[in-house]
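Limitations

Structures in this collection are predictions, not experimental determinations, and the ligand pose is part of the prediction. Treat each record accordingly. The example that follows, with flavin mononucleotide as the small molecule, is included so readers can see exactly what is and is not provided: the inputs are given verbatim, and the output is the predicted complex.
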Amino acid sequence: MAPRVLVFYGSYRSDRMGIRLADYVVSGLRARGAEAELIDAKAVGLPMLDRMYKEYARGTVPAPLEALAAKIRDADAFVFVTGEYNWGVQPGLKNLTDHFLEEWFWRPAAIVSYSAGRIAGARAALHWHGTLSEMGMIVISSTLAVGPIAEALSAEGKPVGEAGHLLDRAFPRFADDLFWWAEAAKTQRARRAPPY
Ligand SMILES: Cc1cc2nc3c(=O)[nH]c(=O)nc-3n(C[C@H](O)[C@H](O)[C@H](O)COP(=O)(O)O)c2cc1C
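Predicted complex:
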C-alpha cells in the first residue's frame, strides 16, 4: 500500500522561498507512489504553544489541532522541510511540532534543509535531528540539503541548473530510504503494539 507521508514546512515570511522545496518534495513523493500531503504551518495557523494537544480536555480541542492530530496518527512517515534562521530552526515549524508528542511516536522522519547560501540549512538540520528523536521519531540517515535555494528551484518548484540537477539525482534514494523505514515501522506497529 502507498505510504502516507506528511511533508511539514513552517516559514511564515511573506516572501518565503522554502515553499518551492516543500512543493518539490510533495510532487516527488507522489511521483514515486506515496500519498503525500503538505502541512504548511502558516496555513494551519496554530497560536504560540499554550496547551499541547494532549492537555486539552476531550471535546475542547481546537478544530485545527484535532484535524492535524488525526493526520499525524494516520501517517506512515514525515518529512520536515526546514530553513535556517540564525543557525537555528524556524519558529513556526517548531511551534507546530511542539503541540504533539505521542502522536509522532514509532514513525520515521526525514529532514530536508535549505537556505539562501551554500550551507543549505545544515545547522538547522542538526537541531531538528535531536528534536525529532526526542519526540519519538526514527530519524533516517538520508537527507537532502539544498542551497542556494534560489539557484536550485524555480518559483514553481521546478529544479533548475546544476543545483536542481543534483537535487533530482539525490531524490530517489532519499525517498526509497524513507519508504523502506515507513514500511518497516508500519509492519512492526501491526505485528506488536507499541509499548506506550
Ligand atoms: C531571520 C533570518 C535569519 C537567517 N539566518 C540564516 C542563517 O543562519 N543561515 C543561513 O544560511 N541563512 C539564513 N537566513 C537566510 C535564509 O536562508 C533565507 O532567507 C531563506 O529563504 C529562509 O527561508 P524561507 O524563505 O522559507 O523563510 C536567514 C533569514 C532570516 C529571515
